[in-house]
Amino acid sequence: MAYPNVGTILDRTTRLLKQHYLRAFREEGIDISTEQWVLLDRLYSSGDASQTELANGTYKDAPTVSRIIDKLAKKKLVERRRFPNDRRRYLVCITKTGKDVHDRITPYVKDLRLRTWNGLSEDDFNRLQNILQHIRDNFEEE
């Protein structure tokens, strides 16, 4: 069997989804990237977190998370606070402005997620998750 270039298909799909998210954010007048949205959403739903927890929870490497946090902090959407018992580590916290931005964007994100799965079943979603996990496992075992 000839296997399709899965990487190209995944990359093209990811880029197309990101374009739609960015357009929705821009139309709402919010200057935020999809990567920044992922961290902001994680902090909104799960509460304050360390940089390591954010990296693990969003499947991003620590330097990338650090850069995203810096950008979100400049926009006053998050802030870093020292851990109470460890002055070397920081806790990343969503600000009131960050919560307001999250609340404004969430309806658009929900709409885009519904649009993404239009015509597909829960079984389709579960199969896709299993296939993608299997592909990751193929490479993580090395």
Automatic annotation (TrEMBL):
Signal peptide: none annotated. It comes from Neolewinella xylanilytica. The keyword Transcription regulation applies. Keywords: DNA-binding, Transcription, Transcription regulation. The keyword Cell inner membrane does not apply. The lineage of its organism: Bacteria, Pseudomonadati, Bacteroidota, Saprospiria, Saprospirales. This is DNA-binding MarR family transcriptional regulator. One of its GO terms (molecular function) is DNA binding. Residues 3-137 form the HTH marR-type domain.
